[in-house]
Amino acid sequence: MHVKINSTQNPKVKHLLSLEKPRERRKQGVFVIEGKKEIGLARDAGYALETLFFCEAIIPAAEAAEYTQPQTLLIPVSEEVFEKIAVRESTGGLVAIAKQKPHGLDRLQLGKQPLLLIVEAVEKPGNLGAILRTADAAGVDAVIICDPQTDFYNPNVVRSSVGCVFTKQIAAATSEETIAWLRKNNIAIYCTYLQASRPYHEIDFTQPSAIIMGTEATGLSDAWVKNSNANIIIPMQGKIDSMNVSTAAAVVVFEARRQRGFAF
Question: Which of the residues 68, 93, 177, 203 could staple to 59 if both were Cys, CB 3.0 to 4.6 A apart?
């Protein structure tokens, strides 16, 4: 075990804080995880934990050690230091630095009747986190983020997903790459789109299916609409014509899951 860190100016603390910046996460290939549940999910998903900081005033050293792997450096920190490195209050006294994984389309492993959730150009980490929670709850096979404006390892994505960033297969690619990959794998493309659309519940989602969501501001790019097997719409009863993307994703994905008999 590392000696206890009592100063917020310690190099290891500064290193952790630097990972708030996307550039540093990309450069170093690591990211931050807060909380017992999230760290446990990451470990179970095969993420390598490089460092585990724990606050002895919150969690005993023996319990903190249960979350480590053979290569993990376990570091006790003071309450002052922990308050500096932890954003959430309900972390259980643990903050980890873990290695990133590659997320190419070629790494996805799919069954015969895959159900995919694809989001183009999502910008807000909170939306991406909520989408990942929906994907976990509905048991989709994978989530693909096309032309992402935020990365999977943004601390706000990890926090808002409540660790669901680790529970599903995830990939990042351009829209063009993803369309070609879907065609190659004979997966039907269903785009949420306002024009020339059918109500989402009329679509047969029991076949290999990809549900494509765009942003509220700009919707989907033309490439998706041109390659869509069918455009789908959620009938709206109010005066607005759009929902938050994470809410819309939940509505359509759970209809797909209902058609499949909720069989996992």
Answer: 93
Overall size of the chain counted in residues? 264
Q: First-to-last CA distance in the chain?
A: 42
Q: How many helices (DSSP H) and strands (DSSP E) are in the chain? A: 10, 11
69-78, 195-204, 215-224: least confident range: 215-224
Sign of CA dihedral 154, 210, 140, 246: positive
- Dist. CA 77–CA 198, nearest whole Å: 56
Residue 159 in contact with residue 41, Cβ under 8 Å?
A: no
What predicted TM-score, i.e. pTM, was given to this entire model?
Answer: 0.91
Residue type, 18: S
Confidence of residue 17 (pLDDT cuts 50, 70, 90): very high
